[in-house]
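hey m, so remember when u said the tokens were messed up on ur end? i reran from scratch. heres the input so u can diff it against urs
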Amino acid sequence: MFKDTKAFSGFSVDDVQKAKQFYGQTLGLEVSEQNGLLALHIAGGRNIVVYPKPNHTPATFTILNFPVSNIEQAIDDLTARGVHMEIYFEGDQDEKGIFTGGGPLIAWFKDPAGNILSVLEEKV
């Protein structure tokens, strides 16, 4: 039934303009706005819709993952832009917030609406 549809993902925020600044300026994504909605234009040709929700509650799970070739450099760039890395696994995350307890190297941060995002290292 949906095999050939061009599905896309979306998530809510409590302030579209703060989200636009964060995703566009802080993270450097191409962002467009139409009818009060944002579209995050990511590599691969699929957009992510960001929509306002007055009673927004931040997701308690990671809603968006950003694969990078060098996680330490990505974290340095993020923190230089004022982004705070989150600690979820005390003792299993290093001083930069990188999870070292097994699996991919990953670190988490939040958008202005409190949604959880991650940066993770992928060797290409």
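this time it looks ok to me. The beta strands are 9-13, 30-34, 37-41, 47-52, 62-68, 85-86, 106-110, 116-121. if urs says something different then somethings off w ur setup not the seq
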